Every structure is written in structure tokens, then in C-alpha cells.
Amino acid sequence: MKVLITGAAGFIGFHVSKSLLERGHEVVGLDNINDYYAAKLKFDRLEQLGISQREAEEWNLLSKSALYKNFQFIRLGLEDRENLPKLFAAQSFDSVCNLAAQAGVRYSLENPHAYVDSNLVGFINILEACRHHEVKHLVYASSSSVYGLNKKIPFETTDRVDHPISLYAATKKSNELMAHTYSHLFKLNTTGLRFFTVYGPWGRPDMAMFLFTDAILNGKSIKVFNHGELERDFTYIDDIVKGVVQIIESGTDNKNPEDIPYKIYNIGNNKPVKLLDFIKSLEKCLGIKAKMQKLPMQPGDVTRTMANVDNLINDYDYRPNTAIETGIEHFVNWYKDYYLNQP
């Protein structure tokens, strides 16, 4: 297959691109490499895929990988209504996996326009490009954040999600509605994936796993919100990637018995971990006791998440299963190698 991966320099996009390449697919990676967090990490991810920083810095120029003959990268923003359709016209993608987005619940309180530009304008541009260039399947990232203050546990894709409590969540719910409309009007096959607290090697620096590890190793205190009374359905990156790749490779095999080729899945570990237990596991792995600064609940945050993955199991015979202790060990090993062992 020929697949476009947007957000290819990002955490999940990098791993999905690598997996597809190793499975023999042709991949075009797209990313605008914004400054939401240090661009060096994004450039270093691309280096793992055979794209140099010099090549990645060039706008609107397709660069061929020196490592994977079936990988090309282009620096381009989804908001670019002139060049995005040109890319689709030139490449004839079988599938598109849209992982590009302005991420982060808390940052949406500071810079809401970034979310509108990337997550709304960008997504409609992707939908239009897929519609007009005969893309067979659009797979896109949604988020567990769409469940908002839903008190029913576990979260099911059939639950109402009409009350988002952050702009980030609102944009992700909007993506699902927009995808449904295009599936209905134009029979575009779309699959939305609600990810649950993804972590692992090459992870984002704004996520708890990264922030806590960095602070503990540097003797700084960690911020523990809601005084530690939080639970998260932590999902290891390899589990996310396996689910995404399997759904991409399913192609246009629509699992929905209805006429509208539209589907939503949760991808989560289905085993929420208490935040304080998570910190204990991290302390054990690092061999250092954490200094905790317990704080009130953050605006836009929720107390508990847990994914019901029954439809993922039923349709794809797949469920995430990496234990938190295993995932933490892999992340810590990568962190030490990347940050502490560099010249």
C-alpha cells in the first residue's frame, strides 16, 4: 500500500511510519515540525527514518530516505490549501493516517487558535483531499479526551460525548463529526481512533511519563494534580501502533454493518492505573524517590479514564496488553540512552 502519515515527526506518527516501512509499505511522511516542544526531538525521530535535519527543514520539498527506499518526507502544514491537494494529486495514496494535530489539553487554554488551525482547518483539508483524490480509507487520531466528565466506566464508543471540557477535546469530537459527514455524503471510508494516554520511547516532553522522569532524575519535585487522586488508562506505544497498523492494513474492509463507512474505536489498555501507583513504579525503575508537590485539579482534566475495547477485539481480534511496569522500563531505558548518554 501507499500510505500518507501526517504528523510523521511526532511521537505516534514516527512509530507508525517505522512499522509500516518495516512491513514493506510505501510511506510518505508529512509534518510541519512546529515549536510546541523542542524541534530537535522531532528531527531526531526523522533521523531514525533516514531523513536528515537539513532535508526535513525544507518546506514543500519531498526528500527520499537514505535508510528506507520506500519512505519520503515533506515538511508541510495541513492548513496549506494550495500545496496539500498538489501532494495528493501527485502521489495517489491508497490510505491516509492523520496523526497530525495540535496536542495537549492544557496548552489549549493558552493558544486556542493553534487548535483551530491544525485540528479543524487542517482536518477539513484532509477530508477534502481524500474526497477529491479517491483515497480508499482515512484513519485518524481522536482522543479519550472526548469523553469529558463521563462518569460511566469503562468509556464505550457508544457513550454520548456531548460535553467536552477542553478545546482540545472539542476539536477531536469535531473531527469525528466531520468524518461522519464525509462518510455519509461521499462514502469516504473513515476510522477514528480514541487513544488513551500513550507513552513510551520517543514520547512527547509534555506528557507525565516524560515530565516525571526528567524531574526525578534532576532532583526536582513533580507536580501531582488532584493530590494524586487520578487514574489513567496508560497505553504503551507498541500497542497503539499494532492497532493502527492493523486497521490501516484492513483497507476498505468496512467493519460497520450500516451503509455509512464510518467507525470509531478506543485503543487503551483497559486497566486504569492510580497515579500514585504509577509514580511508585517509576521510582522503583529509576531507583530514586520522587519529591512530590501535590496540587489541586487542573482545568480541563478528568479524574479517571478507562477504555472499553470490545469492538476492537470483535472486529480485529486485538487488544493492548503491555503491563505498565514493562512500558515504564522501556521508556526509562530510552530516556537515559537519549538524554544521558549523548556527547
TrEMBL record:
Is the keyword NAD assigned to this protein?
yes
What organism does this protein naturally occur in?
Flagellimonas flava
- According to the entry, every stretch annotated as the NAD-dependent epimerase/dehydratase domain falls at 3-268
Keyword annotations for this protein, in alphabetical order, are: NAD
The record's listing under Pfam families reads: Epimerase
InterPro entries from the entry? Epimerase_deHydtase, NAD(P)-bd_dom_sf
Q: Which PANTHER family match?
A: EPIMERASE-RELATED (PTHR43574)
Task: Classify the source by domain of life.
Answer: Bacteria
Q: What is this protein called?
A: UDP-glucuronate 4-epimerase
